[in-house]
Amino acid sequence: YLLSLMTKNLFRKGHIGLYRDDGLSIVKGSGKQANDLGKEVTKIFKKEGLGITVEVNLDSTEFLDVHLNLKNGTYRAYHKPNSTPIYIHKDSNHPPTTKKKLPGMIERRLSKLCSTREAFEQEKVDYQEALKKSGYNEELRYSPVVPEKKKKRRRRVTYFNPPYNI
């Protein structure tokens, strides 16, 4: 309901990202217009008995597990200051395939969350340490994300011509 109210009235020239209790919006306009928009959003939430924190005119921000630098368009992995990643131990009672593929999955995820090799090298320290604590010796390496080509979808069409029946 709130989203429909806001999209109809407020965000005609912007983009919104929402996930559960986190939201991020990029809106075209001046600093004053963004400030007024923030006040309007706060008013809508307050009217519905909800609270919201609105920050406007930011150069960088965190959204979910990504730190976005809005000035230069770069991004990197983000986790809260006092949180450390924990992974299943190599000797745990999990399927062997899961344990074997875990370092590669972490490597791919971290590579996707970092726009540059330098950002990856800075961010990988915590993840590499967590892997070592879990008994893995593999070294995390940056592998840039290559966009996949869109595959043409081939439809298999099956025709059925029923027999004539009055």
Task: Write a brief structural summary.
By secondary structure, this protein is of the alpha+beta class. Helices cover 36% and strands 14% of the residues. The relative contact order is 0.09.
What topology emerges from the helices and strands here?
Elements: H1 2-9, E1 14-19, E2 22-27, H2 31-47, E3 60-63, E4 66-69, E5 74-77, H3 96-113, H4 117-133
Helix pairs in contact: 3-4
Strand content: 5-15%
Largest sheet report: 3 strands, antiparallel
Q: Mean of residue pLDDT?
A: 84
- Taking all Cα atoms into account, the compactness measure Rg is 23 Å
Inertia-based shape: extended
Strand line-up in the sheet with most strands: 3-4-5
Beta strands, count = 5
Overview of this protein structure:
The chain is an alpha+beta fold and 166 residues long. Helices cover 36% and strands 14% of the residues. It contains four helices and five strands, in the order H-E-E-H-E-E-E-H-H. The protein has helices at 2-9, 31-47, 96-113, 117-133; strands spanning 14-19, 22-27, 60-63, 66-69, 74-77. The strands form two sheets. It has a three-stranded antiparallel sheet with strand order 3-4-5. A hairpin with a 2-residue loop joins strand 3 (60-63) and strand 4. Helix 3 (96-113) runs antiparallel to helix 4. The protein starts with a helix and ends in a 33-residue tail after the last helix. The mean pLDDT is 84.
